[in-house]
Backbone:
């Protein structure tokens, strides 16, 4: 039986006492002390009741579903160990051993007191499976006590003792123990001589069971993760395991070879049957490259991924991975010219009468061929042409990592990456586009390569097309024909897929700004101008014409001679686009047109002065305590206006400025609600002011949730400040409730809840209290014992006095605060043509939006649809509707289904995005140590859930028609 929390039970009694004794002098609350039944006693009784092993197993399974308190763990373990020694059935002992491991993980419990008992259980155990489980429990204990060298040494000795067991599971667990707890500086005695952990583990690289060989390699890797330097002598043994019959062994061996190549990159290793020597990292690169042709696709994936992280390899080896030379018997076939040259130099020609008289004179052993020829040669060629798309993706990613660190290699692998644009799997095509974008700074596309790239614009997948637009933004092209080709293909894309409009315009903006000298000779053709004749003025509503203008105007920014080629209507169109699409059209200096605009480099100041202005504004507000109420409110109003304007002008500081303005807005509302005349008048006479103050308190609460969940980059100090304002708003609400509703029961429950909120605030932000000096919370916490026992009327008076006397809390800013924003691209809301559908049926409305600085959008972003009759629907998009094109940026592409009864006239619906939040006074529940079940978790404190609109609403005309009879 799960008992309720003692706090909960005691709290109930207090409320009942107060409810009955409010008219008289209040009696002290009775405190209840609930004793919890002993878990160990209950378990002992259950196990004693078991008549056979099946019953005992059933009781143990039931016990595993219940949580165990930290103070009961040791008693329960003793009971389980006692029953373990009595039990004869292997399955029950196995379950007890498993439970012992789970109990040892309980938070707050130190298992050092039971290590000896656990080790003693190993001595008489005959079952191999139970022995393996007991060793697993010892592994748990060892990881719980990392700072205890005595325990670690004893556990390692136990592992060495059982390494000779015939059961593979026991040997595996022993190797795991050695890998997790082994210390390189402590010699161990095994088989009569002192040895270190690494040599003991390496003995099992040649074990007869492949599972043990895998465990040995993983134990050695575990040692490496524990900051133990692996001996170089292990390299040769790991290389031999690359040709093992079992894929798990080969996979672990690839990891081991890679680790050693990073530890000893410059060591020299000999090439077998040769006088040559080679760097270890190059040798390892060749061997891992050879694994890209492994029989198991999982090993191939791992080998390809590993190659991408070997950045210290020699350029010669790196280039061999892209070498397509034909091999015969692991040797390169020589051309006819080379063979003729050798024959001429030797003076001998084949007579044709003797069989193979022109064969090579030396004998060739396949196993001793230099790995330059057989391993690294063509590794990425094999990987990019693999039958499994996972291998192809891994190879593409590895190419990306290597190409980013080597510009020459980036140029050589360009053709291979461009070929991957034609892959049959969309995910491979998408990955290759992303990779090419990442290395675009090192490369310049030729016309034939650009032709292959642009062919992907025909793809039906929107993700592929937008990724390609992003690629063209960052790509350099070599000739003006390339620019023209790119423009024509993008305009074809625009006519075929009109929804790509914004993405194509953005792409052409960057294409023009990157290649101004290549766009210049194309301007007369692009703008259709003529030196002698006037040409017709194009239509400004044509998206294709706007696309051309975006390309030209962005090129003109770096090319001062270009505006001379513009027609008169081009200048007018520039002024129009500069106002309507200012994010795509840059400010230009257009001579003689009356549109001389200041160049952007003169108009925008440095970021330092806005930051200084922001700090000075906050410092000015800190002097507000010395002003009278009207002057203080006016100062706050002016500062809020300045900060909002600063956020509009400086995008880098927009989040920080908005955060400060919203915080000061909360303080202004609080100040207005606490005006002198409101509190000096009788309650019936100030009804209107009371309503205003109630609305202000509610608005402050809403603003605090925006401050907490709409902004990212906040530190604990800022979160404490936000919760402090929220606490003030709750205190104001409580005071207003006491003034307007004289009912005692409501007031008592409100007072109880406020005291709980105060206690939660003190618990959550104990470390931040030094920064809250002279604040409302600090003054209340000083009289906290009195608050928890005084009458509600007295509590309200204390709150009212403290609230009016508390000073403004100074806001300390972190380095960077970002505000979560959303922009709905589609629908645009510009069309006057209603979307018609039959009433009772559904209409699918496409939603396309960009999200900035949103944490976990899959769970927090919702779409709200507001109908003209006041109905509101909230839709939760599927996780697959979200894409992540860049850091802190997401894209939402989804469909919303609308339905309604028939209307006589078309009407507008509003579509907006909401950010959902869930806030509780306790930041995190205390997690139980070893039980995975959620059945018996303590009930959380009151959780507040809500939504915050964070996009501008878009209005869409719809027209449900009556169904035809």
Residues:
């Amino acid at each position: 039986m799960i008992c309720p929390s003692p706090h909960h039970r005691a709290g109930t009694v207090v409320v009942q006492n107060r409810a009955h004794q409010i008219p008289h002098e209040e009696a002290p609350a009775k405190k209840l002390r609930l004793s919890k039944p002993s878990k160990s006693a209950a378990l002992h009784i259950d196990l004693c009741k078991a008549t056979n092993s099946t019953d005992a197993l059933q009781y143990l399974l039931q016990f595993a579903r219940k949580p165990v308190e930290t103070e009961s763990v040791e008693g329960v373990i003793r009971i389980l160990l006692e029953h373990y020694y009595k039990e004869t059935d292997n399955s029950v002992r196995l379950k007890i051993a498993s439970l012992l491991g789970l109990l040892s993980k309980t938070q707050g419990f130190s298992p050092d007191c039971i290590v000896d008992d656990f080790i003693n259980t190993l001595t008489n155990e005959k079952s191999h499976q139970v022995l393996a489980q007991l060793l697993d429990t010892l592994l748990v204990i060892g990881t719980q006590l990392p700072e205890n060298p005595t325990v670690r040494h004893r556990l390692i000795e136990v592992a060495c003792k059982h390494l000779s067991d015939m059961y593979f599971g026991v040997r595996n667990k022993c190797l795991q123990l050695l890998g997790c707890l082994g210390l390189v500086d402590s010699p161990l005695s095994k088989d009569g001589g002192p040895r270190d952990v690494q040599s003991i583990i390496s003995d099992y690289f040649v074990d007869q069971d492949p599972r043990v060989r895998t465990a040995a390699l993983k134990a050695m890797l575990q040692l490496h993760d524990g900051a133990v330097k692996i001996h170089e002598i292990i390299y040769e043994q790991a290389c031999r395991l690359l040709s093992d019959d079992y894929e798990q062994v080969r996979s672990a061996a690839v990891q081991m070879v890679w680790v050693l190549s990073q530890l000893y990159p410059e060591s020299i290793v000999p090439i077998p049957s040769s006088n040559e020597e080679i760097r270890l990292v190059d040798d390892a690169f060749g061997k891992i490259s050879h694994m890209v042709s492994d029989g198991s696709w999982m090993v191939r994936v791992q080998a390809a991924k590993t190659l991408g992280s070997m950045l210290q390899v020699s350029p010669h080896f790196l280039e061999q991975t892209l070498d397509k030379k034909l091999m015969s018997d692991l040797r390169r076939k020589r051309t006819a010219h080379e063979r003729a040259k050798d024959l001429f130099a030797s003076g001998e020609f084949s007579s044709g009468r003797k069989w193979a008289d022109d064969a090579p004179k030396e004998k060739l052993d396949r196993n001793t061929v230099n790995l330059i020829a057989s391993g690294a040669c063509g590794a990425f060629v094999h990987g990019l042409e693999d039958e499994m798309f996972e291998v192809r993706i891994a190879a593409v990613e590895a190419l990306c990592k290597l190409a980013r660190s080597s510009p020459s290699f980036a140029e050589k692998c360009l053709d291979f990456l461009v070929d991957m644009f034609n892959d049959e799997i969309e995910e491979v095509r998408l990955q290759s586009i992303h990779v090419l974008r990442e290395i675009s700074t090192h490369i310049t596309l030729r016309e034939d390569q650009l032709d292959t790239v642009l062919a992907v614009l025909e793809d039906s997948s929107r993700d592929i097309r937008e990724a390609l637009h992003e690629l063209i933004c960052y790509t350099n092209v070599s000739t003006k024909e390339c620019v023209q080709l790119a423009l024509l293909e993008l305009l074809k894309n625009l006519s075929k897929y009109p929804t790509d409009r914004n993405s194509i315009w953005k792409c052409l903006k960057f294409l023009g700004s990157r290649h101004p000298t290549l766009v210049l000779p194309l301007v007369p053709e692009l703008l259709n101008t003529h030196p002698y004749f006037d040409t017709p003025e194009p239509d400004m509503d044509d998206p294709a014409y706007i696309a051309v203008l975006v390309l030209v105007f962005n090129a003109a920014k770096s090319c001062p001679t270009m505006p001379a080629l513009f027609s008169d209507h081009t200048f007018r169109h520039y002024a129009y686009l500069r106002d309507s699409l200012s994010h795509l059209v840059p400010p230009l200096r257009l001579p003689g047109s009356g549109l001389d605009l200041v160049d952007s480099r003169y108009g925008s100041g440095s970021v330092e002065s806005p930051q200084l202005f922001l700090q000075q504004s906050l410092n000015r507000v800190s002097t507000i305590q010395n002003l009278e109420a009207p002057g203080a409110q006016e100062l706050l109003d002016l500062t809020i206006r300045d900060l909002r304007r600063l956020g509009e002008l400086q995008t880098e500081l927009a989040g920080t400025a908005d955060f400060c303005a919203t915080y000061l807005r909360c303080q202004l509302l609080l100040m207005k609600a606490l005006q002198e005349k409101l509190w000096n008048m009788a309650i019936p006479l100030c009804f209107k002011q009371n309503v205003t103050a109630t609305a202000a308190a509610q608005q402050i609460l809403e603003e605090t949730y925006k401050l907490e969940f709409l902004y990212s980059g906040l530190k604990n100090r800022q979160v404490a400040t936000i919760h402090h304002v929220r606490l003030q708003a709750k205190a104001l609400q409580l005071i207003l409730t006491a003034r307007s509703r004289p009912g005692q029961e409501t007031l008592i429950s409100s007072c109880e809840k406020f005291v709980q909120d105060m206690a939660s605030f003190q618990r959550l932000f104990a470390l931040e209290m030094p920064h809250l000096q002279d604040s409302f919370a600090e003054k209340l916490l000083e009289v906290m014992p009195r608050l928890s026992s005084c009458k509600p009327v007295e509590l309200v008076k204390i709150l009212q006095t403290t609230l009016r006397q508390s000073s403004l809390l100074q806001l300390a800013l972190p380095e960077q605060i970002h505000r979560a924003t959303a922009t709905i691209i589609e629908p645009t809301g510009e069309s006057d043509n209603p979307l018609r559908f039959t009433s009772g049926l559904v209409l699918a409305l496409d939603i396309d939006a960009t999200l900035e600085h949103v944490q976990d959008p899959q769970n927090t972003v919702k779409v709200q649809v507001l109908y003209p009759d006041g109905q509101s629907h909230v839709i939760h998009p599927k996780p697959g509707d979200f894409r992540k094109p860049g850091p802190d940026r997401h894209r939402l592409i989804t469909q919303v289904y609308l339905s309604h009864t028939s209307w006589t006239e078309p009407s507008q619906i509003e579509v907006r995005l909401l950010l959902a939040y869930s806030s509780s006074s306790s930041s995190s529940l205390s997690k139980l140590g070893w039980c995975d079940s959620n059945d018996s978790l303590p009930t959380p404190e009151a959780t507040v859930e809500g939504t915050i609109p964070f996009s501008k609403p878009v209005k869409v005309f719809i027209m449900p028609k009556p169904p035809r009879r």
